[in-house]
Batch of 3 targets.
Target 1
Amino acid sequence: MTSEFSVTTRQRSQMVDITAQVQAEVTRQNCQQGLVTVFVPHTTAAVTINEGADPDVCSDILGGLAGLVPLRSPEYRHSEGNSDAHIKATLVGASVQVPVAGGRLKLGTWQRIFLCEFDGPRSRTVLVHVGS
Ligand code: ZN
């Protein structure tokens, strides 16, 4: 079963903790055991799992990606002017998978699931697919 929810981002680059929404979909789909796939159907947004305890980690990830991928480059050809966002989305990826046991996401103590916005602000869709 696949369901979805929306996330409104507020900055051009931002990581939004969506763990609670993903858990809510797992609960709503009545999944007790299996594997959940979290997928973003976008080309300038991504999804990742990383530390949620210290917000500086997300800030450093976004800063590190900005250091790797320049906002402007004479090499870019894409006329929309957001090539950096497309490159960052490809580096981070469009999906993650998390095991579910006892109806709960089996994340590590410090792990959270994040939507990564690279060309916001805008509304994004997150798909949650539960398979066994
Ligand atoms: Zn584009």
Target 2
Amino acid sequence: MQKSKIDVILGIQWGDEGKGKIVDVLASRYDIIARFQGGPNAGHTIKFGGSTHVLHTIPSGIFHEGKVNVIGNGVLVDARIFCQETAELRLAGIEPRQRMKISDKAHLILPTHRLLDAALEARKGAKKIGSTVKGIGPAYTDKTARCGLRMGDIFSPNFNGKYNGLKAEHVLQLKQYGFNLEAATIDGMPWKQYEEKWLEGIEELRGFEVVSTEFYLDRAMREGKRILAEGAQGTLLDVDFGSYPFVTSSSTTTSGVCVGLGVPPSAIGKVYGIFKAYCTRVGSGPFPTELHNETGELLRQKGHEFGATTGRARRTGWLDLPALRYTLMINGVTDLVMMKSDVMDGFESICVAESYRLDGKPVEGYPDTESAERVEPVYASMPGWKTPISSARSYDSLPQEFKAYVEYIVRNTGLDIKMISVGPDREETIVNA
Ligand code: GDP
Ligand code: IMO
Ligand code: MG
């Protein structure tokens, strides 16, 4: 039998594009759904049957019976947050142990990683990244510094010794920063109490199947199993290609799938690039098409643009083609998926940035972070659609102006839009448009 390929779903803007929804929609076509990077900085929202679920660490295929969800080696796991997610799933009648495997090489986020994240952000002052403060930066730092703790370590007879050793290093660093450990809290509780819950979470994690998922995935591919890799964050937050330093600490791109799951580049099949019909960003950093007016506020209110992880208001703006062309190139996107078009229902007109100018000259390629703060987008404007689109289930039934918007994006990216999401619910989706 021919080895199967891994299809990829990833965000091609600044995160929160709607990856969770689309992974859930597509999960029925796959046998395995695997997260390859990021950690609980992610918030992936899924709506069906009148209920809403937000996942942070657990892959978005978890609601489908008979599917295997994999937390890959590239993912970071916070035992406490993981435990909260599993408790919520059980309340929804799902036993995650039967549907999930975790890589023995996935790194752990310690409570003190979260304190370090907070301390480092505070030291940055006005230059802060706007991190979700989930410990992502410090935990990936320890991974590359070769002193992190991994899932495999939780089964070591000396786990407590290893944990206390790394914690002591962190405490030392925190003291050097003059951080007030006595008064420190995490998620609204004294950090020592958080630590207790975190250690309970480690016990919960021990009940899961922790294996070398790279071998599991290789065998699955040889057996012809269909695999979907689920990205977190978005390409413009990638540690290399995002607006550094206002980025996350992982590779959010297609290449990240290979290192984050232990699969070869030749295993990559389709790459679904997910984008909103407009743009949002949460946290600091350049956002060329950002709107600081009532249209921006309208997008925020109608799109409920408040973070699924932190509740922070998301910055909003028009669709940005130079940024999209860049992220399509980096990822080798084969199929586009457009989200949240319904949010612009009733808009008189819609703008799209076609190019940038800097100091009066056209910008080639994609600008560096400092230039991206100063570029002036050159906009095209087109008429909006007046009929609400959320009840549409076929491309043909969509308003003419909306189809013109879709066709404009297809022309300007050279890629087909394979799915259009017209509302947050699983059902509110037009497939193979
Ligand atoms: P993710 O991080 O990429 O999975 O996206 P988030 O879950 O953080 O944010 C997407 C938000 O938009 C969630 O609240 C979704 O329920 C919602 N959503 C997804 N698709 C649509 C859509 O087509 N229309 C509307 N109005 N909301 C959507
Ligand atoms: P999902 O998977 C949107 C942003 C933060 C901050 C920067 C660094 O839901 O799309 P970090 O916590 O990683 O140190 O934060 O990245 N960020 C996200 N923005 N969606 C996300 O995930 C994000 N994860 C991190 O706001 O600007
Ligand atoms: Mg999100």
Target 3
Amino acid sequence: MNKIDLYSMTEDELVEFFLSIGEQKFRAKQVFPNLHRGIHISEMTNLSKQLRERLEEMTLDTLPKVERKLTSKIDGTIKYLFRLHDGECIESVFMRYKHGNTLCISSQVGCLMGCKFCASTLGGKVRDLLPSELLGQVIAANLDTGERVSNIVMMGIGEPLDNFDNVVKFLKLVNHPNGLNIGYRHISLSTCGVVPGIYKLAEVDLPITLSISLHASNDEKRTSIMPVNKRWHIDELLTACVDYYKKTERRISFEYTLISGKNDTEEDARELAALLRGAFRGTGAPIHVNLIRVNEVEETEFKQGSTDSANRFANRLEALGVVATVRRRLGSDINAACGQLRRSAACEKSETEVETLD
Ligand code: SAH
């Protein structure tokens, strides 16, 4: 018999499930909040022992387990390596800010997209994460820290819009008032530019924040570091962004990883400002660029520039009418770039079949 994935179920699906095993539907109302609070089935004392045992037998334990954990001595940032039920591993990062705790979560095991500067994509994509495994990262971090995650950024391993249905289901689960009740406005989703996914997300119309990993201001440069740009060029991407803004009225933020000598010159800043201002002209949309100095990854040749040069780039953008912030770095002493912990922990199973973009 196929095992049941309780954490992936909505309350309505749980009702169906309990009815299908001859239980009453109020069980759903008992179980849903407890699951999301991280209470294991065996500890759900509002259920009979017999029902607990039956449920345990029928279900797959999809809650990620802490495999390794690095804690920053500087600011308490925690980097988790989580092990999944099939032995695969993913990373999440727990960060403390004045406005609350933010968890950066993974959306896939590995990644298909092949961005040249990114460690997460070096081994290709192994599989999508289930809604339960997306939600489970938040539950597991809440349990481990004894604190509450109040903000989520989907900027860990994987491309969220390449796992669209599971991601949207997760967003609805994590927002549910009887569950973790995290407001959509406290959730950001970052994409490398999967254009059909941006249109679909606009249709779903959840008031989350969309971040676009742009990283270059013309097609030639962008294609050389991001293979996804071969499929959807910058103009198609920005047209989708304008559509998203018009439909949702949500501000879009652009991520721009500064790579020394590659995309961080004065000319690059000028071209970037002109590109974004041109695309959003007449829409009234505020344009915000987040600058990140590239995290150097051993297997790649990309080099990080100085803080001064990042600040100069930001000032240039500001002078040209584009709001820009240089991202503050938390956990700089545990600063394995995204995806590197998973690689170094030999969690990638060499026999696993992987997919790549080309
Ligand atoms: N696939 C999604 C989300 C995951 S990556 C996306 O591409 O947006 C989250 C962000 O980290 C992206 O902006 C990505 O381009 C950036 N990133 C990846 N590797 C990096 C590195 N080595 N240094 C700096 N930023 C990096």
